[in-house]
Amino acid sequence: MASGQNSRGPHQLMPAPPTDLPLFSGETDRARSRPRSAALALALPRGRDFKGFWESRFGGKKEQEPEQNGHANGVANGSVRKRTSDLAVYEQFEQQARQTEVRAAAIRDGNADAIQKPLLPSFESAEMRNLAETLLRDIIRGSPDVKWESIKGLENAKRLLKEAVVMPIKYPKYFTGLLSPWKGILLFGPPGTGKTMLAKAVATECKTTFFNISASSIVSKWRGDSEKLVKVLFELARHHAPSTIFLDEIDAIISQRGEARSEHEASRRLKTELLIQMDGLTKTNDLVFVLAATNLPWELDAAMLRRLEKRILVPLPEAEARHAMFEELLPSTTSKLEVPYDTLVEKTEGYSGSDIRLVCKEAAMQPLRRLMSVLEARDELVPEEELPEVGPLKPEDIEVALRNTRPSAHLHAHRYEKFNQDYGSQILSQEQA
Predict the structure, then answer these.
(1) Tens-place pLDDT, residues 336-364
(2) CATH number for the 136-316 domain, one of 3.40.50.720, 3.30.390.10, 3.40.50.970, 3.40.50.300?
(3) By the 8 A CB rule, do 312 and 368 touch?
(4) Which of 114, 136, 132 is nearest to 123 (CA)?
(5) Residue 321's closest CA among 191, 159, 198, 152?
(6) How big, in percent rounded to 5, are the helix, strand and coil portions of the chain?
(7) 319-408 adopts what CATH topology?
(8) What is the per-residue pLDDT across 395-427, written as a single tens digit (0 to 9) for each?
């Protein structure tokens, strides 16, 4: 009998434990009073729990590829790794069983509203769960706390985003059938114009879970893990729906696919999996939205461009928006100077929102530099409580700031306009149409 057991695999030794049995350590007194099944009574030694029995038999064993398989034609294969222990699978089972018992107790006691959704969904393997844990750092729990009012200008982009994402979540009754919401939205435009802030404002307005994803989040050095990370990402997003997946700098992830010889196989598999997952969103009613941002929309793959159905230009700020930014960053009451806002607006044509912030920062640094030169000329260090206040802003400080800060985002303005004319989404009035 012993020899027969040793010849069997771990999954042939006993059937999967039923979920209604107390198979984990720390079971309640009420659970201990339940009779165990006949199969488990034969399989488990008396006085030992399931986890201890499994660990003693199989927990120390790890299946591993032979070392010579890690080299093909003398080239090291970095994908050879130890497989996850079988014990990890049953540790996951134990955790899920505890969560099920807690939820059942809360429902029984009438506290169903207090139940919190678990951070991770149920995965089919411990490996997928481990990959999911690496993505948890990219989840912004709760609201990013960015309001529409904090974004100056960009009225057309705001209206399109509200129409594509906010309204379907607020009024799902109207967005069914042909009017089902867009699942893929592309924000394109010069760098520093507020694409990331728009995405966070959407998450704040809709109270959705926000996944801030970059290329480093889903690209792995291990063979096959990149496409698994993409699959796990979308599983997490469905679990936390309504949710927003923000793919920043998407051109670094899925640029135009080249010839088979010029593109790495891992890159092709990653792009293919991402396209498959985005196709899956359009076939379900899950409120999962993909917001992608890029500074180079003309480099995106055509298949991805098709899945990003709504393409919104985030342009450089207009004169009115620039005026509002200067009033907020350089208020006259704080600077003790009548700031020439009209002159600033006129001289910052072609500046992005990020450039305007740098202009204001550079202007505010001028009084501090004058104070630093005085303090550094002293022989002794001035105690913090005796440090003088920073002096007021002068008109020449603003002139110096404008000379020292040049626009960084105006070089490809015509290309963005051309792309917007060819592929962009706009709201046209009847007169414009």
Answers:
(1) 677 888 989 999 999 999 999 999 999 99
(2) 3.40.50.300
(3) no
(4) 132
(5) 152
(6) 55, 10, 40
(7) Helicase, Ruva Protein; domain 3 (1.10.8)
(8) 889 999 999 999 887 778 889 999 999 888 876
